[in-house]
Design a protein that fits this description.
This protein is an alpha/beta fold. The chain has five helices and twelve strands. 23% of the residues lie in helices and 23% in strands. Strands 1-12-2-3-4-5 form a six-stranded mixed beta sheet. It has a six-stranded mixed beta sheet with strand order 6-7-8-9-11-10, with no helix packed on it.
Length: 287
């Protein structure tokens, strides 16, 4: 004999079904929701890129340059994560280190010393070179210069240095960030030797067009930090908003925009993993 189902029973069954559906939906969507905050900001990508340089001396053929950018030591980017990035960089055994600015975030200037201390592990045979970014204001220039130099890293402020190896030479230029410094023009450049340029903001490439620079390394964008499908980065502090991340050609100039290590404001990244880039210079035409 069947018993009629009461309205109360139907409501209980409907409620159980809804809770089951809600639980399954939450379980399915939670990883997607947590990925931008718990996974991607800590998932460092090492990119390895061969760069042909015309007239590159044989002594420099095959040298490796590691780029670190936008460390942004702050509550959003803990020191242990920066130390991990430095350990990974060191394991790549680069010949030269390029640091392209924003070592801390605005207002976190007391965080410079631990970052500078962490950089001591980087002891590349051809040296390290650094420029400052828009979060590294002139008020801390001298202290940062001194801290970097104690760790074997030379800070460049609109100047050029020459690196020698086995009797051959290449030049490294440091171009100041246009948003942090009044003077952002390129130094006086010579085409006698192959040249690498470090800058923070890729917009500085405007100053490098038509110069002898073969490869310019920049950061600043964080690769957009959050790249929404079909929309792209909601915020991109650039004039040339097409220069988001990766390698670009501007005349004979190759410009590489690194996605950086740290996060700004919040520890979140989406479709823009933190990045260490290892460039290998090769003799060849810049075609």
């Amino acid at each position: 004999m069947s018993h009629p189902v009461s309205v109360v029973d139907k409501k209980k069954r409907s409620r159980r079904a809804f809770l089951k559906w809600a639980g399954l939906t939450t379980a399915a969507t939670a990883p997607v929701a947590l990925y931008p905050t718990l996974v991607e900001p800590s998932w460092i990508e090492v990119r390895k890129i061969n760069v042909p340089i015309p007239n590159l001396p044989a002594a420099f053929d095959g040298i490796a340059i590691a780029q670190l950018s936008d460390l942004h030591h702050s509550p959003a980017t803990p020191l242990r994560f920066i130390q991990n990035a430095i350990d990974i960089t060191r394991s790549l055994k680069p010949d030269l280190i390029a640091l392209t600015g924003d070592y801390v975030s605005w207002g976190d200037f007391d965080r410079f010393p631990p970052v500078l201390d962490a950089l001591k592990k980087l002891q590349p045979p051809l040296g390290g070179f650094a420029v400052r970014g828009n979060h590294d204001p002139p008020t801390v220039d001298d202290a940062v210069d001194e801290g970097l130099s104690q760790n074997g890293i030379r800070s460049l402020r609109n100047e050029i240095v020459t690196i020698t190896k086995n009797g051959s030479a290449i030049d490294v230029a440091g171009v100041c960030d246009r948003h942090a410094f009044a003077a952002w023009q390129a130094p006086n450049l010579s085409d006698d030797r192959p040249m690498l340029a470090l800058c923070h903001n890729p917009d500085v490439a405007d100053a490098l067009k038509g110069t002898p620079v073969d490869l310019a390394l920049a950061g600043h964008t964080h690769g957009g930090q959050v790249n929404l499908p079909f929309i792209g980065p909601p915020v991109l502090p650039l004039i040339h908003k097409e220069l988001v991340a990766g390698m670009y050609r501007i005349g004979k100039l190759r410009l590489y925009v690194n996605r950086g290590i740290g996060c700004l404001s919040f520890r979140v990244r989406f479709r823009s993993r933190p990045e260490i880039t290892l460039f290998t210079l090769r003799r060849g035409e810049n075609g």
